[in-house]
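User: I'm writing a tutorial on reading structure tokens. Could you give me a worked example: one chain, its sequence, then its tokens, then a sentence or two explaining what the tokens reveal?
Assistant: Sure. Here is the example chain.
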Amino acid sequence: MSTFPSRRRVLTAGAGAALGVGALGASAVPASASPTASRSSAGSEETRSLDELYRAALAEGGKLVVYAGGDTPTQQDGTKAGFKARFPDIDLTLIVDYSKYHDVRVDNQFATDTLVPDVVQLQTLQDFVRWNQQGRLLHYKPAGFSHVYDAFKDPRGAWVATGAIAFSFLYGTAAVGSDAPHDPRDLVDPKWKGRIASSYPHDDDAVLYLYTLYARKYGWEWVARLAAQDVRFARGSNSPGDAVFAGQKAIGIGTAGSAIPSSSSPAKFVIADGHPFMGWGQRTAILKQARNSTAAKLFLNWQLSTERQKNSFNGWSVRTDVTPPAGLKQLWEYPDAHVDGFPRFMADRAEVERWKQTFALYFGEVKGDPTPGWPGLHPGA
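And here are its predicted structure tokens:
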């Protein structure tokens, strides 16, 4: 964890196919904020139109800063372009970084009274629960909130998922020929040795959860056999797909994609009945201390609009009233996606850490600079 252009390529190419609680930030809760206050009702859904919100946002100052989880600095360029095309006079700054860095960045900004973003859109689902308990989130229900899948929203509007994302593995159709891997068990076949790319499971918690599902389903012997496959591990969940589309590797593990069938695809994103993959809703929230709260509301309403949801990069929507393309079910209708399991997994940070360090024993330590670069303490300020 729609707005991920580098992942969008997985779909447009027909690919039938971001840790930690900042100790300072966690303790620096304003006196006026309390769990009791954070539980107050946000009321009914937004009734203003996008154009009405746009005018109100301009009157407020016309600025907006969003911190979004992702893999590359340009990964949200499609979102920025779409938003600017619809609302050209809003000065939008959208900063991409791994969610595990954005969350502690925000915590540090809380602690130092230097908050920059108005909106956070992150994969670290546990942070939204914690921030809500600390009274950090603005309770707000955008238009269409009632149509969002129940598990993809806080009932009082503290946060709402704006994108439905799935991770699995994919392969290049030309590279594998008629001998395609049908499910994760096939990935440890010796014929694929040296031909697999993967994002580090111990660097990205969504990929970590995917690998956890594999280990639970197939056992540690399967993990050991995969470790013997000379897998090229890299940072960034975009990296496996990039390697496949560039013809560098035949198979990519731990990346986003869509299961929309396509006979002309150069790659196929694999979802096999009875075998695990993982899906989740990328959570988005307005910070209570946001300087540009009206523009933030505009952003959430736009992201949840049926127009945006119908044009998600992978065909999946967070809304129950948006029908997926032919060949797809709603993401939460796939039992093997473990949509309800990922939030529970993310909440147990000690267990997450154990899984990370165990996979490091098998696959080695994470190497390489972060793919979004080094945005620093206060990007967008």
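What the tokens reveal: The chain has 15 helices and nine strands. The chain has two domains: 5-164+279-333, 166-278.
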